[in-house]
Amino acid sequence: MLEMRPDCERCGTDLPADQGGAFICSFECTFCADCADAMDEVCPNCGGELLDRPARVGEALKRHPAGIERRFKG
User: Fold this and answer.
1) Which of 4, 42, 53, 68 has the fewest CB atoms within 10 Å around its CB?
2) Is the pLDDT of residue 73 over 90?
3) Which residues contact 60 (CB under 8 A, 6 or more apart)?
4) How many domains does one find in the chain?
5) Distance of CA 72 to the CA centre of its chain
6) d(C-alpha 46, C-alpha 25), whole Å
7) Per-residue pLDDT tens for 44-58?
8) SS3 state of residue 7
9) Cα angle vertex 19, ends 16, 24, to 5°?
10) 0.85 surpassed by pTM
11) Does residue 72 belong to any structural domain of this protein?
12) Does 13 fall in a domain?
């Protein structure tokens, strides 16, 4: 199950689990759409491809809430 990190690692933008707009690599590094575009959809941490993160909604989100640890180091 995905960790569903709550923010962009690069700029700190909030990325709610129940909405689109987040991009992740295979290690779940998480970035907003603007930052992913600026990095040509390549993760700066591992060099992997950044892909759309699926949303988690409804009962699934209630049973398995999104992560709360923010990764932005700002």
Assistant:
1) 68
2) no
3) none
4) 1
5) 11
6) 8
7) 999 999 999 999 999
8) strand
9) 75
10) yes
11) no
12) yes
Q: Concatenated DSSP letters for 9-61?
A: TTT--B--TTSS-EEE-TT--EEEHHHHHHTTTB-TTT-PBPEEPPP--HHHH
Q: Is residue 68 within 8 Å of residue 14, measured between CB atoms?
A: no
Question: Is residue 33 one of the residues assigned to a domain?
Answer: yes
Tokens 């199950």, residue?
Answer: 1
Three-state DSSP at 63 gives helix
Give the tokens for residue 60: 């699934």
On whether residue 71 sits in a domain, the answer given is no
Residue 31 corresponds to which tokens in the numbers above? 């970035």
- Residues 15-52: pLDDT tens digits? 999 999 999 999 999 999 999 999 999 999 999 999 99
43: CATH: 3.30.40
Domain hosting residue 17, numbered range:
1-65
The residue whose two tokens read 């700190």 is: 12
